[in-house]
Design brief:
Layout: H1 10-19, H2 29-40, H3 45-52, H4 56-65, H5 80-90, H6 96-103, H7 107-116, H8 121-129
């Protein structure tokens, strides 16, 4: 696959870098941590991109690379009702697969939501029981 850098003219790159100064720059470890933390704190991809000087596409690609946002994620927003339902399901003796099937959500969607809800004591305890200590356990 061709590197996009060679498909853009210097003028086009300069124009994009006016809005996104970190366009085409290598990601640092600190930036990777920052993008992950912001996304898990419910900051939108667009807001993350603006605050980090990156394009929204770059942010999405990095989140996918970090295993936080998977290509098959449709991006459907979680409702408060779904959060409550998820918390209620966690009180039962239920597997992650069963939760996904019951809620009609992908494994990555449920795991990401559990990570975002981890401040809740009940969710943290159940997430630990299910072995969800990182965005995508093996």
């Amino acid at each position: 696959m061709a590197n996009n850098r060679f498909l853009l003219t210097a003028e086009q790159i300069a124009r994009v870098q006016q809005k996104y100064p970190r366009f085409l720059s290598k990601w640092t470890e600190a930036e990777e941590t920052q993008v992950k933390d912001k996304f898990l704190a419910d900051v939108s991809v667009e807001e993350i991109a603006d605050s980090m000087g990156r394009t929204p596409k770059s942010v999405k690609l990095k989140l996918k690379e970090l295993g936080i946002l998977l290509p098959q994620d449709p991006g459907r927003k979680w409702t408060k009702e779904e959060d409550t339902f998820l918390e209620n399901l966690l009180g039962d003796d239920i597997t992650l697969t069963e939760i996904c099937e019951t809620m009609g959500r992908s494994r990555s969607s449920v795991m990401t939501r559990l990570l975002k809800m981890r401040d809740s004591l009940i969710v943290a305890d159940v997430a630990n029981r299910l072995g969800i200590n990182s965005p995508l356990p093996n």
